[in-house]
Design a protein that fits this description.
2 domains, 6 helices, transmembrane, Pept_S26A_signal_pept_1_Ser-AS, 309 residues, alpha+beta
Length: 309
């Protein structure tokens, strides 16, 4: 009989923590992937020319396909300036748009042609831009990307160094099968007599636990499944973040920063390595969990008794 474990419901604390985490990362996901909300691009407000509607550090999500009317806030490029401007449309004249910052007294010089408009602002996310600008600094990059990866590696090294040589990752002695007692086994052997046949090599004893972990060699390092998953997620986050930086640098300066390229390469290699290790461990666990097609004899003779549970 195969028993299927019933999944337990998460506690209120875990559910609340998950909701808080999703709420915290959602603004950054929308900024990185505006297509998730049906927009096209996201920008960080750098000046206070649009206060109080927009403040420095706010993020504006713009839609290139949205129609533009008087009173809308648009993001556009002016001349050779590589940094876009986000102002409000205050009028239309000669096929162009007059724009003005809400905090400015005068309208902007010149008209904004339709070809210069990047899109109309459809969503404003406050305060998120401060974190994004800080993350693009060397200190922010080290704190948010390099720091967590270093801490993860150091914690794994400490856990491996503190682990006893004869103990595996689960805390059980490698040379002792789960649930076995050496003193009890020795007493049982003495009581049975000296002519008791020894089970053949590679055949499980009748009282052994079939799910007991196999002994590991001295050169094997055990890694918990949760550590593999965390490493895989960290490498994926590093690869995505570095790829986004390289894309933005290509769009702005047509030449990425060498640091971003190195981080992208490292993230890709780490993602491939962590993925291959995780896939190998998953295949090994499935192979170990597969039932044997031929039941093993306990004494090398006689009929096989199969118990139907």
């Amino acid at each position: 009989m195969i028993r299927i474990p019933t999944p337990s419901m998460p506690s209120a604390g875990k559910l609340l923590a998950t909701l808080v985490l999703l709420a915290a990362i959602s603004p950054f996901v929308v900024f990185a992937v505006p297509q998730a909300v049906g927009a096209d691009e996201g920008f960080v407000v750098l000046s206070g020319s649009m206060e109080p509607a927009l403040s420095p550090g706010d993020v504006v999500i713009v839609d290139a396909a949205a129609p533009v009317r008087v009173g809308d806030v648009i993001t556009y490029r002016t001349g050779g300036d590589s940094v876009p401007t986000t102002h409000r449309v205050v009028g239309e004249r000669d096929g162009g748009y007059e724009t003005k910052g809400d905090a400015n007294e005068n309208v902007d010089a010149g008209l904004v042609g339709p070809e210069a408009i990047i899109g109309r602002t459809v969503l404003v996310i406050p305060f998120v831009g401060h974190v994004i600008l800080w993350a693009n600094t060397p200190v922010g990059y080290v704190s948010l990307v390099v720091g967590p990866l270093v801490l993860l590696g150091v914690s794994e090294l400490f856990a491996w160094a503190r682990r006893e040589p004869g103990v595996d990752a689960s805390g059980e002695t490698r040379h002792r099968a789960a649930g076995s007692d050496p003193e009890r086994d020795r007493s049982a052997t003495d009581a049975a007599g000296a002519d008791v046949d020894t089970p053949a090599a590679g055949v499980r004893a009748s009282g052994a636990d079939p799910e007991a972990p196999a002994p590991q060699s001295a050169g094997t390092v055990a890694v918990a499944a949760v550590d593999l998953k965390l490493t895989l997620l960290a490498m994926a986050a590093l690869f995505a973040y570095a790829g986004w930086n390289v894309y933005r640098e290509f769009a702005v300066a047509a030449a990425p920063n060498p640091v971003s390229v190195g981080a992208l390469t490292g993230g890709l290699l780490g993602l491939l390595f962590a993925g291959s290790v995780t896939l190998t461990a998953w295949r090994a666990s499935r192979a170990a969990a597969a039932p044997s097609s031929t039941p093993a004899l306990t004494d090398g003779s006689g009929d096989v008794e199969v118990r139907d549970e």
